[in-house]
Amino acid sequence: MTDSILSKAATMEIPINSNGDTRTAEEDSLEQIGGSLDEVVSKLPVAMDLQQVMVSGPNLNETSIVSGGYGGAAEGIIPTSSIKDIRSKSRGITPSHSAASRIANQPGHYKAPNMHHSSSNPSMMLEEATRGVAVEKFDSVKKWSINTYKCTKQMFSERFGRGTKTVDLELEAQIDVLRETKLKYERILRLAQELTSHFYNMVQTQQALGDTFADLSQKSPELQDEFGYNAETQRLLCKNGETLLGAINFFVSSINTLVNKTMEDTLMTIKMYENARLEFDAYRTDLEELSAGPRDAAAMMRIEMAQQQYQIQREKYERLRSDVTIKLKFLEENKVKVMHKQLLLFHNAISAYFAGNQQQLEQTLRQFNVKLKPPGSDKPSWLEEQ
Hints:
Elements (H helix, E strand, L loop, with lengths): L1 H10 L13 H8 L1 H10 L6 H7 L7 E3 L10 E3 H11 L8 H7 L9 H45 L9 H51 L4 H68 L5 H58 L3 H10 L14 H4 L1
Antiparallel strand pairs: 1-2
């Protein structure tokens, strides 16, 4: 049916209309057989050139012919490349490729990029990055789990007396002395803070008592002198008490720095040293157990890896042991220097206050560079009270 239709279209003559316009045979035949071509095209494989046309994009040579009259509804759009293929087939010529394929294969022809592939690259990169982070986290958790297991096993072995422990007797003795010293200094700090609190309340009471005596000396003419003497005495005691409070606060601040900063920093290093010692013993025990087992290829590989981990833990342990030794030495020197100054200040200030020697008390504070806060500086401002 296709061959007969195309043969008829090919043999048609060129008609001349009433106005004298000439029309090609192909246009006239296509108009006459428009309805038949719709049926033919509907039977052709639609997907024959669709993928290649989508890849190569639209081309000027691939226009379309709309069947039907002017102003009428379009019944079908027929690519001219399909018509040319049909005509070639009717003439006995079998094309090896479609028109879109030939155009796409011509040199210099632009081929549209594969948008699906380019758009998939960022998602693939993101997926690879996420997978890399997940693998890294998994390896970190795996190493932590193995290390925790070995250390826990070593700790229980030491507590039950079945494992060996690396001990530096001299260093352990110094660590025990430091812990005991810290406990005693914490007690001194706590008692000094209580003394400061009680003495501050006493100074406030003396100040209120002095103000009351001064008020009564103005309102009681018969006891004016007696109230006046006592008011002056309480005011002097309050002033000396504030001076002594400045010395005690300085003493408390220095002890607090020594105990909660200097000693605490050294104890943190000691804790790191003890953890490193436990890890070192755990990997040492693991290496000893592997060395006592069989010596096949797999076992030798495990022994080599255990040897590497043992060397790493050994270097870490020795480094931290050296740090602890140095910090203990500097801590002892700093403690002697600080306590010598603070104990002398505390003794001189207390003695001068209870002896009533105001000049000696003030000289003691100047000697140790203790600056007193102005009266009322501890009270919050009116803005802070709002």
